């Protein structure tokens, strides 16, 4: 789980799939891999606890993340490369700005190549910046996740500004003198975002609609699967519970998660098994018991799929956890 550091900090690191829970400032997340194979993801992260943060990740594996965002802060996400990913039900596009209000329950489907810069700031600071930059508080973006498309040149200018600020703060951070309060360039960026949202709101255009029907269907199916993960879940049962045809369900999963419903169910079972294996010795559990607990009926196939997903056998995960 992600927690704020005790003092202003900077890091520029490579993250393996098991480290992705720390990839979002102020957002404790649970991560499920959606496919086998991965390259390390990179993140630059500048954090001043409760004051501001700047994350610049580039993800190189497919995963599903769920968590509750910091109740006192907002996040403004500038998308560079979307690669078919979604956040909070919003299908991401290149040059998109996504505003996530305080306390939002965040879900994300990440596909390899997703790259963005996210600024995190206290709600009160964001409200003040809106008043100064736009002359008003934009209620819509403070009540629910909302997105706006920027012109390509404007989006590129903003990203260059954010990356230059990260480069500067990285140099400063190496000397352990990171500022506690948001730098002027950081607030200037927030002002530009507030102005862009205000302009779109006044024109009644430019904003991007949130969750599509297909996303809602896939999300409802995901909730059911997670609740009943220990049970047999044939696709016909899932269709009946969600109220869609098999064809509609397949399409919803393909467009939302880039996998089939069966592949999604298998992935969730493998991820849940891994979480249980990490604590298995302390709880006196065996590989067989854990496999059965997550609804696995074929142990040999489970072991083969597990190795394909995580690069080691269930037994090796259990042994490694016991040594740590």
TrEMBL record:
Span of domain HTH araC/xylS-type: 219-320
Key words of the record: DNA-binding, Transcription, Transcription regulation
PANTHER family xref list: HTH-TYPE DNA-BINDING TRANSCRIPTIONAL ACTIVATOR EUTR (PTHR46796:SF12), HTH-TYPE TRANSCRIPTIONAL ACTIVATOR RHAS-RELATED (PTHR46796)
Protein name as annotated: Helix-turn-helix domain-containing protein
Protein source organism: Mesorhizobium abyssinicae
Organism taxonomic ancestry: Bacteria, Pseudomonadati, Pseudomonadota, Alphaproteobacteria, Hyphomicrobiales
């Amino acid at each position: 789980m992600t927690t704020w550091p005790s003092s202003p900090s900077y890091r520029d690191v490579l993250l393996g799939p098991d480290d992705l829970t720390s990839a979002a400032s102020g957002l404790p997340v649970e991560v499920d891999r959606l496919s086998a194979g991965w390259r390390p993801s990179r993140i630059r992260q500048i954090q001043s606890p409760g004051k501001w943060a700047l994350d610049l990740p580039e993800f190189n594996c497919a995963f599903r993340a769920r968590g509750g965002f910091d109740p006192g802060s907002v996040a403004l996400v500038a998308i560079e490369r979307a690669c078919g990913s979604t956040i909070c039900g919003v299908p991401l596009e290149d040059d998109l700005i996504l505003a996530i209000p305080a306390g939002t329950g965040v879900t994300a489907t990440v596909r390899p190549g997703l790259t963005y810069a996210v600024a995190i700031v206290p709600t009160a600071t964001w409200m003040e910046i809106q008043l100064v930059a736009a002359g008003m508080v934009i209620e819509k973006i403070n009540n629910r996740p909302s997105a706006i498309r920027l012109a390509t040149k404007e989006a590129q200018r903003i990203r260059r500004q954010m990356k230059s600020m990260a480069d500067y703060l990285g140099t400063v951070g190496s000397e352990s003198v990171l500022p506690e309060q948001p730098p002027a360039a950081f607030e200037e960026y927030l002002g530009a975002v507030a102005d862009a949202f205000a302009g779109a709101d006044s024109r009644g255009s430019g904003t991007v609609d949130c969750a599509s029907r297909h996303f809602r269907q896939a999300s409802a199916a995901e909730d059911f699967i997670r609740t009943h993960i220990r049970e047999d879940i044939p696709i016909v049962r899932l269709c009946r519970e969600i109220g869609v045809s098999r064809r509609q369900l397949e399409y919803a999963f393909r467009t939302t998660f880039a996998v089939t419903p069966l592949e999604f169910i298998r992935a969730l079972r493998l991820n849940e098994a891994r979480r249980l294996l990490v604590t298995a010795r302390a709880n006196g559990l065996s590989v067989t018991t854990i496999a059965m607990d997550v609804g696995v009926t074929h142990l040999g196939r489970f072991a083969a799929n597990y190795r394909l997903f995580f690069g080691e056998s269930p037994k090796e995960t259990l042994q490694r956890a016991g040594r740590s």
